[in-house]
Amino acid sequence: MSNEGSYVEQDEFNRDTNYIEDRITADGGDGWKVEPDRYRLVVARACPWANRAIIVRRLLGLEDVLSMGICGPTHDKRSWTFDLDPDGLDPVLKIPRIQDAYLARFPDYPRGITVPAVVEVSSGKVVTNDYPQMTLDFSTEWTQYHRDGAPNLYPDALRSEIDEVAELVFKDVNNGVYRCGFAGSQEAYDKAYDQLFSRLDWLEERLSRQRFLVGDTITEADVRLFTTLARFDAVYHGHFKANRNKLIEMPALWGYARDLFQTPGFGDTTDFVQIKQHYYIVHKDINPTQIVPKGPDLSNWLTPHRREQLGGRPFGDGTPPPPPKPDEVVDPAHSA
């Protein structure tokens, strides 16, 4: 096994979805009450699951109550590290790797050390890494600290449809690209490939008729799909062999992806350089040379999408978020 770990399965890739299920809630039912400055969100811009949390935190305006630590784009088989920070230490938690926060709470933690994770600052202990629930709780439990004009990403009337669409997208697209890339047999790869593109065709048809996935505003469902689409041509098409066609060859999906990318909170949290570095350097069993490709050209992400012709109001009755905090700005050389 390489120092980065092995990713390709013997047959079909099965993601471990057993996360730390503690929730941070308004009433503190799990022992973790929503409080400003009590917690730190630890992310890596390269990771699509963490990218979701970055986007939702930004859209809702939680930056001033929930600080954010950013790991570098690569990791070894132990965990993500804070190699972007001075001296390789997170400036708040004072640790070199997120694994330290997991072990502070669970000395024999047996599972993968993942991001995003929320850490209690005072104790240095991880609270949760349950990323699907995490972003929903940002929307529903942290409402006291939402910015003025924060969008409703999980409206009551649409929750069942959001959940249904999000589950299909997770199974066939978000996780489907990994099932292609980490397949250990031709049969497993073929099955994952067919499911992925069947679902992308379904999404292409759906998004040819409506601007957003559910309803006429941006919801949690859009955040979850976007982070995979942003990585599709840069990584998944080649590295994961998801190559029936590129995103730019699917008109509705490509227009939809650009619409979101050009919306504050989406494109300005996306770091293409770190994304490519992560996949092509860490997955040595897929890319033994660790050569990071120079392409694709990113300037097309800023071309007109004309999705406004389908109607819809991106933030509903809300407003776009302000620019990112100065220390959270993506390097302009890493974006479109």
TrEMBL record:
Origin organism lineage: Bacteria, Bacillati, Actinomycetota, Actinomycetes, Mycobacteriales
Active site residues per record: 47 (nucleophile), 178 (proton donor/acceptor)
Origin species: Rhodococcoides trifolii
Domain of life: Bacteria
Region (Disordered): 294-336
Protein residues bound to glutathione: 80
SUPFAM superfamilies, per the entry: GST C-terminal domain-like, Thioredoxin-like
One Gene Ontology term of the molecular function aspect: glutathione transferase activity
Record-marked site positions (Lowers pKa of active site Cys): 236, 279
Domain (GST C-terminal) ranges: 155-282
Protein name: Glutathione S-transferase
